[in-house]
Amino acid sequence: MTDMPRKNFWSGVGVAAVAAFLLAWVIPTFGGRGFAIGMPPKALATLGAWLMLGCAGLLILVSAIALKRAREPFFALPAAGHLWHQTWPFLYVLGFILLIDRFPLTWVAPLLIGGLLLLLGERRWHVVLLTATIPAAGLYGLTAHLMRIGVV
Amino acid sequence: MIGFDAILASFAAALHYESIVIILGGVLLGYVVGVIPGLNRAVAIAIAIPLTFYMSPYAAIAFLIGLSKGTAAGSAVSAILLNTPGEPSSAATCLDGYPMARDGKPRKALKVGLLASVIGDLLATLLLIVVVIPFASVALKFGPYELAAILIFALVFIAAMAGGSFLKGLAAGGMGIILGTVGLDPETGAARLTFGYAELMEGVPILPLVIGTLALAEMFVQLDEYRRNKGASVIKLSHDKADDLSYQEFKGTLPTILKSTGVGAFVGALPGLGPSVGAFMAYGLAKRSAKDPDSFGKGNPNGIAAAEASDNAVIPASYIPLFGLGIPGSVSAALLVGAFMIHGIQVGPLMLRDHPEMLFTLFSGMIVASLLMLAVGWYGLRIFARVTSVPPHIVIAVVIFLCLAGIQVQGYGTFGLITVFVFAIFGYFLKKFDYSFVTFLVAFIVTPMLEMNLRQSVILSGGEIGILLERPIALAFVILTVVMVLHLGWSSYRRRMQARFKARAGR
Amino acid sequence: MKMKLLTTAILSSAMAFGMAGAAQADEFPTKPLTLVVGFGAGGSTDIQARVLANVLEEELGQPVNVVNQPGAGGGVALARLANNTDEGYTFVFGTSMTITFGPLSTETTYQLDDFRYVAGVTLGQSAMVTGEDREFGDTWEGLIEYARENPGTSYATQTALDRMIIEYIARQEGLELRIVPTAGGAGMAPLILSGDVDFGYSGGTHSGYADSGEMPVLLSLAEDRLVAFPDAPTVQEAGYDLDTSDFRVVVVPKNTPDAHVERLAEALEAATQDERFIEITEERILMPVHFIGEEEATEMLHAQSESYRQLLKAMGGVPDDE
Predict the structure, then answer these.
(1) A118–C contact, CB cutoff 8 A
(2) Does A25 contact B at CB distance below 8 Å?
(3) Cβ pairs bridging A and B (under 8 Å)
(4) Distance from CA of B339 to the nearest CA of C (A)
(5) Does B470 touch chain C if contact means CB atoms closer than 8 Å?
(6) Helix (H, G, I), strand (E, B) or coil at B471
């Protein structure tokens, strides 16, 4: 619970930054042009961005006060190892998405499942093998034969 | 007009063993398809329509009805066990179903969901039979003004009910609104925030967004926890001995089921709102009227009951404007029109005159399908509930695969996979920093409808706000929204003052 | 173990490539096809497409899956098709108007020349419609008179084209209209039936109300009077110099091999003679089935595109994009 105000503070800063970026550049540039009688094309997106900015601003204010009161530091960097620990699963999945782009999913899937199991410390080979092949084979049977979709 | 004999005869037809077999086939196929994350009702029906081409009109319709009910039940199973809704409207079921299943009570969660969905479905079907013709035209009283007012009400209501920090919830809602406007502008046709991608012209595809923020993101969170506590699983998977639904508990959820069915039927009868709005509205209402609103989102059976009852009540109710006026109120209804047309039946107000036997056979088929779904689901959940006794790392790996597979099978292609991935990162941050993804999702779903209805209202009224005085229903919802906002503001202010008072007293 | 997995991967990818290679040499089609509908499920285009897919499935001997990609009056489906490279396995079933008028009115990523037009299949039956028991009755003259006296008469639009047509008419007749955007026929119907909007454009939804008379047709936007509503005048008969007729056409990307296009055209021609297709299209959706070959279809589309260009010029640019 103690690091909640700090979490709020920094996530607020993040959201405010995104909202400001959207307001200052993205929405004016890509928001869509044209005159409309009903509502300008950008109206709702702009409203949403202001809502984000406003809420994030208030959140920053509230959590900053809470931090000050509790006399807690504003900065507390996570360990570098922890950061890597959190990032690699994303990279793993992204890598496989690139593979799926090239090869049929039913061929890639056993590697995706099996690889992840090995990384997670599963060493019983029969478990790895069965978990890797059964779902992929099942999906193949269902889609290719029962539903006749030719994409996997 | 149709006599009582004809109605009886149509029931006899629906109870014939042949038709039961056909409906059962539809329910089973739908159930299997529904369990797979990402495959939904629309896909199942669209794929099955060609299959039905060679059946008799009655068999075809019965099969499609069975299929549609089956997918609904199956979709709830994956929502509860894996946090991966088969269709967007099951997202509300995840909110309480998944925490409950993780808590070692998957069977209870599945049973509540199943019973709620069958009851919601049955009651809404009966409602359809009673009111379909005489009252269908009431739906026409809900024009753009009313729909816009209802959507605003729903948005504010759900945002307020979502729980967690109100500020953070609103910020997430802001993001949902922005993403909801992506695509071609309905009035000017200008491309908005598409960055030149044709795939974004019809908006951010909803299924990759939902699967990404809910399911895939959850898997990343779990991966994180699993590895942090290497060996010792943090996810409780012990099978609770008491994991069953007692009659008392079921009775406790009954009021919620009935109320939520009402909400679902109301939303379904208005063309254009759809099951997602219905399910989230019912969830919000259940939370609002509960004695212990804080237990929602942490595995409250009432949360599951509300979402499922309403989600399933929307579908039969959406046939009210279909058979009464010829306007399909939901995607399922639209697909049904297609199926009827292929078999030479024009759906609409004339159906009662020209094909009354067909209409009543359809109704009785719906009831039979509902009951069969109960049977299939009851036995199915015994098998599926075991998913939670599988070691977490296996579940994580397989679900990641299923998420990607669902998107691929739907034909979203690489763009869909990247979208899922981006929203998985987004959802991961929402979870890590405790932002409400409910508000985000609802804002995203509601924004396009709201924008269309708002524009229509503004143009039709010529910008005069006074028009509201001539539209009492719209006015009522606007007032209701304002009252609710004021009430929320006041009660949260009071709570804050109380908390401060307590803190001072404690010091 | 890892070694073994790697070998499997290499083997399997090699097999995948091998299969792709073999597929190209074989007779088209060797795998399931995808028929893309640029409109939502349940609309008249969608229903027709599903029947067409069924008939094509028999003709081509491969499954034909129907996929809905609604948006921008069919424009989204075409924009995606323009970047498609699977040689005729994916094709769009849509209306000619999306192709001829779309690129003129909005910034589309596709042009008329980006596609080949395999064949036209049915003639469109779009119309200006209204509801029952309106003050101005159910005639076009009645409406025009009413709209002149009542500035702010409302009109429900679905596409950029019908928006331009109504603006052209409004200018010629000196009307001041409120033009309301709606999402497809299912979005337009409640507004018209409830009386919230006075009249509107309908692509085919009105056919569903032909027997009940709840949605009378004011003006036929087809080349001839509508089959189901012979009393409503055509655009030309009402005194407007416009060619608004459209037809439903099957579209593939430009780079599709000739052999594939020919095979598809053959199957489509057979489909237009198929009883089920004719029955559902002519008797349920009330649209005349009419086969138009690739050459003729392409010519018609170019001519129409040119006439819309002239019209846009006369209107002083795109009406809704200033």
Answers:
(1) yes
(2) no
(3) 192
(4) 8
(5) no
(6) coil
Do the domain assignments include residue B493? no
Q: Where are the domains positioned within chain C?
A: 31-124+246-314, 127-220
CB B421 to CB A55 under 8 A?
Answer: no
Out of C90-99, C147-156, C201-210, give the one with best mean pLDDT: C147-156
Task: Kindly give the pairing relationship between strand C115-123 and strand C247-253.
Answer: antiparallel
CB C203 within 8 A of CB C126: yes
Contact flag C42-B350 (C-beta cutoff 8 Å)? no
Does residue B162 lie in a domain region? yes
B8, B10, B13, B15: CA torsion to nearest 10: -60
Q: SS3 of C278, please?
A: helix
Read off the pLDDT of residues B381-401 as tens digits, 9 standing for 90 and up. Answer: 888 777 767 777 888 888 888
Structural domain span for residue B84: 4-235+244-463
> Does the pLDDT at position C10 exceed 70?
no
Q: What is the pLDDT of residue C306?
A: 87
Same fold, C31-124+246-314 and C127-220: yes
Contacts of C9 in chain A (CB under 8 A): 107, 111
Which of C:3-22 have CB within 8 Å of A? 5, 8-9, 12-13, 15-16
- How is chain A split into domains, by residue range? 4-69, 80-146
Q: Is the pLDDT of residue B341 over 60?
A: yes
Q: Is the pLDDT of residue C9 over 50?
A: no
| pLDDT value at C156 more than 90 | yes
The ipTM (two decimal places) reads: 0.90
* Cβ pair C5:A34 closer than 8 A: no
- Contacts for B1 with CB less than 8 Å, ≥ 6 apart: none
For the stretch A67-99, pLDDT in tens is: 888 887 777 777 677 778 788 889 999 999 999
Q: Do A105 and B408 touch (CB under 8 A)?
A: yes
The partner residues of B238 in beta bridges, in order of sequence, read: none
C127-220: CATH topology is D-Maltodextrin-Binding Protein; domain 2 (3.40.190)
When comparing pLDDT for C30 and B11, which is higher? C30
Is B505 within a domain?
no
| Contact criterion met (CB < 8 Å) for A34 and C13 | no
Q: Is residue B503 part of a domain?
A: no
Contacts of C13 in chain A (CB under 8 A): 103, 107
Per mean pLDDT, which of B272-281, B461-470, C194-203 is the most reliable? C194-203
Taking the C-alpha atoms of residue B189 and residue C72, their distance in angstroms, rounded to an integer, is 7
More confident of the two residues B139 and A112:
A112
pLDDT value of residue B20: 85
- Mean of the per-residue pLDDT values for chain C? 81
C280 to chain B: closest CA residue? B342
Residue C218's pLDDT is what? 94
Task: Say whether C106 and B189 touch across the interface (CB within 8 A).
Answer: yes
CA distance B123 to B262: 9
Number of domains in chain B: 1
* C-interface mutation test, from A30, A102, A111, A119, most C Cβ less than 10 A away: A111
Instruction: Give per-residue burial for B55-80: e unless 16+ CB within 10 Å, then b.
Output: eebbbbbbbbbbbbbbbbbbbbbbbb
Amino acid present at C265: A
C-alpha B121/C-alpha B113 separation (Å) is 12
Q: Which of B201, B326, B335 sits opposite C208 (nearest CB)?
A: B326
For residue A120, give the nearest of B192, B393, B456 by CB distance.
Answer: B393
Which residue among B333, B341, B455 sits closest to C181, beta carbon to beta carbon?
A: B455
Classify domain C31-124+246-314 by CATH number.
3.40.190.150
C2 in A contact zone (CB under 8 Å): yes
Residue pair A66/A7 in contact (Cβ under 8 Å)? The answer is no
What pLDDT is stored for residue C8 in this prediction?
Answer: 44
Q: Give the pLDDT mean for A112-128.
A: 87
Distance from CA of B396 to the nearest CA of A (A): 9
DSSP H/E element including B444: helix B437-461
